[in-house]
UniProtKB/TrEMBL annotation:
This is Catalase. The gene is katE_2. Heme binds at residues 72, 112, 161, 358, 362, 369. The active site is at residues 75, 148. Residues 511-526 have a biased composition (Pro residues). The lineage of its organism: Bacteria, Pseudomonadati, Pseudomonadota, Betaproteobacteria, Burkholderiales. Decomposes hydrogen peroxide into water and oxygen; serves to protect cells from the toxic effects of hydrogen peroxide.
Amino acid sequence: AGQPDLGDNPLDGPLDRVRVDDSGRMLTTNFGVPVADNQHSLKAGLRGPTLMEDFILREKLTHFDHERIPERVVHARGSAAHGYFESYDDLSAITRAALFGAPGKRTPVFVRFSTAVGERGSADTVRDVRGFAVKFYTEQGNWDLVGNNIPVFFIQDAMKFPDVVHALKPEPHHAMPQAQSAHDTYWDFASLSPEIAHMLLWQMSDRAIPRSYRTMQGFGVHTFRLVNARGASVFCKFHWTPLAGTHSLVWDEALRIAGADPDFHRRDLWEAIDSGQFPEWELGLQVFSEAQAARLPFDVLDATKLVPEELVPLRAVGKLVLNRNPDNFFAETEQVAFCAAHVVPGIDFSNDPLLQGRLHSYIDTQLTRLGGPNFHEIAINSPVAPIHNNQREGFHRQQINRGRVNYDPNSLAGGCPFQAGARGFVSVPEASQGNQVRGKPALFADHYSQARLFWISQAPVEQDHIVQAFRFELTRVQTPAVRKRVLALLASVDEVLVTRVAASLGMDVPAPLPPATDRPPHPYSPSSPLSLLSR
Ligand code: HEM
């Protein structure tokens, strides 16, 4: 009740202040001076040299020269749309996040889908994990749920993120291959990182070649917390389920489409929305207590594990509808800045060591990508909630803060922006104790059980596709020792899997790796079983 109808153009209000239609208007410079001739530069005589005085030419060229900004260091290739999220229920018993406060409540969203590895102009249908990033413009500020279409991740600790990305990206000496995982560096890294086993199975499955963004699941991946008004918290996993069903391509289709129409997913999303076939997803929550988490055979802080729905069922809590294409790719899709640290009161982080690293990285990279500390003022990033604080100045500042006082506490300005207290964001007062150490909990060391569960859960045709994907990728790996180590990793997952992949490559089946300990030796240390295999 009392909610504005956000059905059609959810961001019309906030974004309309910056939307401009230039058609049929008089041409001006960036400073509003009418331009008499946009075809010819100013010269000394018609054949003479061009004059420095030509501020109109210089402005036009200068602006053009600076039109590109750095692409995202990962997830550079993406497509986005506006829409809304509608809550089915009042979830205030478990979270004070206002967007879940009442049945039927609508919150505007901007959603960007992406591939993870390819460059900005790369093809859509490559084998890769897809990004599924949702920005909720809530009345308590922006919440970004920056997820993927695969529920687990390559690594367990943020310390390894630069390494896995370096290994996946084109090799640094010749910048090949573009947007493919089929090369030595990735498989070298994978074969030395047993924690990757579960992700590897998903990555070689049909899930890594979705039919379209509209038919893709999304996952928050990490365990998060929900917190209610009394400060009580529960663990939570976020799931997006496409109402059109989850569909994949087959590899031959994906390869052909990458050549014939590299924009296949971008075009599909655009055309669906343009023709009124609005894509929809349901948001599902897996909610569980710390006591339940403690009874699970894995650690919920480990992003290479999922929580099986047989153990903690999904509860559908709302619907996401995408109903408006962006007006301008650069202003919206390229400049949008998602950040795993953007949460609102009622949602909090867990101690997942991958998530903890993400809390730093997004704003850090955006300071470079979007040119300084004021990118929150770019229209697509601005909250609909008001902003009041003493953070000022810096490049490209838009807001004009009035008065002589920009510090806290003060008595001269009629008071500072007042602290919200209990209405504000309050971190869960989680007890924590321990010596400063590097390492990981013992349960993080089981890398194979869930990988095997995934393999045996697949239908025969899906298993065929996984074996064929390993074959396709590994036949492009030049270094025999790397292939051998990948097989040893697969032998640790499942005997049938490794036997079939080895047969497809004409190789022997190696022995499985010994069970990992909680602090495995570095792969290159003499005692490592992986290093033995590279001899
Ligand atoms: C984008 C870092 C793990 C999903 C990015 C970007 C960085 C980054 C620097 C570029 C952001 C920008 O330029 O705006 C990291 C680090 C990670 C990590 C350090 C681990 C320590 C993950 C995980 C997920 C994920 C586990 C999925 C749950 C995404 C998505 C984007 C992205 C979807 C694209 C957002 C967009 O559409 O603009 N990440 N990431 N990342 N990341 Fe991560």
